[in-house]
Amino acid sequence: MQAAKPTVRNGYIVRAGRGYSLDELREAGLDLRVARKSGVPVDMWRQTKYPENIEQLKSIAKTIIIVPSKKRKKE
User: Fold this and answer.
1) What are the residue boundaries of the structural domains of the chain, listed by start?
2) 6/44: higher pLDDT
3) Are 30 and 61 in contact (CB under 8 A)?
4) What would the pLDDT profile of 17-57 be if each residue is shown by its tens digit?
5) To 5 degrees, how large is the angle CA 55–CA 64–CA 72?
6) Is 57 exposed, middle or buried (0-12, 13-18, 19+ CB in 10 A)?
7) Helices and strands (H, E) in the chain, number of each type
8) 36 — phi, psi (to 5°)?
């Protein structure tokens, strides 16, 4: 995966996005732990919700397969 190049607007460099916000994850129905284990970038500082990002996350959520962990037997 290549790093995104920064975009230049009006002489200022605008940084590339660092991840999805927690609100976007909630709207898409993803848990934080599941998203991180699946490799979805999460930006804890972001507070915004963009409909485009939520749609992207919904399509990502369809491809994620959650495998239940094996429970240990008590002896």
Assistant:
1) 13-63
2) 44
3) yes
4) 789 999 999 999 999 999 999 999 999 888 999 999 999 99
5) 145
6) buried
7) 3, 2
8) -65, -40
